[in-house]
Every structure is written in structure tokens, then in C-alpha cells.
Amino acid sequence: MNESPDNNTSRETRRILVLALVVAGMVALLHFTPLNAFVSDLQGWKKMIDEIGWIAHVAFFLTGIVAIALGAPRLMLALGAGTLFGFVEGFTVALIAGVVGSYIAFLTAKRGSPERYRDWLKRFDSIRKLLEKPSVLNIFFVRQLPVPALALNLLLGLVKTPHRIFLLGTFLGQLPSTGIVASMGSAVGKQDVGMALKQVSWGMAGLAVATLIIILIRRKIEKGNETKLS
Predict the structure, then answer these.
(1) From CA 73, how far away is CA 71, in angstroms rounded?
(2) Of 2, 16, 139, 225, which one's alpha carbon is 20 to 30 angstroms from that of 130?
(3) Closest listed residue to residue 143, CA positions, set 91, 46, 214
(4) In the chain, what's the furthest Cα-to-Cα distance?
(5) pLDDT in tens for each of the 230 residues of the chain?
(6) Whether the Cβ atoms of residue 80 and residue 115 lie closer than 8 Å to each other
């Protein structure tokens, strides 16, 4: 994988933008076509989850931790959590599960043998170079790139990242996309189409803010690299 951070950032922006448009289309289909019966079925599931209470949240949380540790797409977890639990609870469950699952994968690499992962991680050599001196800022930045979370977790473990740096950088790095996607998932499960479309709009606004933050961070890193070379 030899793409520049700039190209990766553009790809990630397009990916979340496409997701936002897909969710907006789903909301329209589910409310203005015969498919609106799905919303009623979904409300039944959500009611059942409410009746089960915290056990449902814990079950989803533990399942999410295992899935993320094994390399499952983190944003799918956020989408499902937002749909089933609503934005606030879904965002909280997905974010914490994402961080804990990532930490487990990180620990596995930190205590394992580099040779075990070397061949697979060769594809992410450009990302490895960004993480040679891992910091909260660098981890935040690479978490925004369209790179499998498992690869980042393993790379950060292999470069002997301090635990607190990994946890804080991962928490902050997963915050924007988890919030955006959980909001989209919550919109899918809304009976009120106006509120659903409003949440999609909030997600789009969040995307714009996250993109701006990424651009500013990228420029800061590039400026730092230019300073080192001069």
C-alpha cells in the first residue's frame, strides 16, 4: 500500500459521503415505498431490546469487542448499534467496544512475534512509516484513513506504542467516524421521516467537520516533515 495520506484522506471522505447518501436513500425508501413495513418490524425489535434492558447492550458490546479484535469492520458495528439502540446509546456502545477490541488486537501484536504478521503488513508500509514515532496526533490521523483497523492495531503493537498513547489516540481517532455512522444508523430506525432526514443532515455536517480536522492535521504533519528536511 503506497498511497499518500492525501489520497487516503480523499478516499475516506468519499467513502463516508457515499455511506451518508446511501443511508439517506434508505430512509426515503423505507418511508415512501411499500418497504416502510420494515420500519414497523424494526420498531418491534427495538421495543424487544428495550424490554430486555441492559443485557442486550452487554451482549452487543461483548460481541462487538470480539468482532473488532478479529478484524471485523468497525463502522458496521457502529451502524448496527445506532440502528438498534439509537444514537446516544449506540454511539457509546460502539465506541467503547471499538476501543477495547482494538486494544486486544494491539496487545496480541505487542506480545507476539513480528514475523507472524510481517508479510501481511507489507501492504501497509506507508502507514508504518507514519507510525515510526507513534503519538496521539499520528494515531488520530491514521485512524481516519481507509485502512483496516486490524492492520493499524497490529502495526501500533509492533512499533511498541505506549499503552496510554494507543488508548487515547484510538479513542479520539474512532470518535468522529463512529459518531457519524451511529447517527446514520439511528436515522434508519426512526419512524418520523423528518427526524430521520435531520439526523442524516447532522451526519453530513459531522462529516464536513471531521474532514476539516483531518485536512488541518495533515497539513500540520506535512509542515513538520518539511521542517525536519530543511
Answers:
(1) 6
(2) 16
(3) 214
(4) 64
(5) 444 544 545 555 566 566 666 666 666 665 565 555 555 566 666 677 777 777 888 999 999 999 999 989 888 899 888 888 888 899 999 999 999 999 999 998 888 766 666 666 777 777 777 787 888 988 988 887 777 888 889 889 888 899 999 999 999 999 988 988 888 777 776 655 566 666 666 666 666 676 676 666 666 656 655 555 45
(6) no
Rounded-to-integer distance, Cα 30 and Cα 38, Å: 7
All cell numbers assigned to 126? 506507508
Q: Write out the three cell numbers for 214.
A: 483531518
- What crossing angle do the helices spanning 74-85 and 37-52 adopt, rounded to 10°? 90
Q: What is the pTM of this model?
A: 0.71
Tally the residues of the chain.
230
The residues, ordered by sequence, that sit 6+ positions from 145 with a Cβ below 8 Å of its Cβ are: 5, 8, 9, 11, 12, 127
Lookup result for grid cell 495520506: 5
Return the C-alpha cell found at 157.
503493537
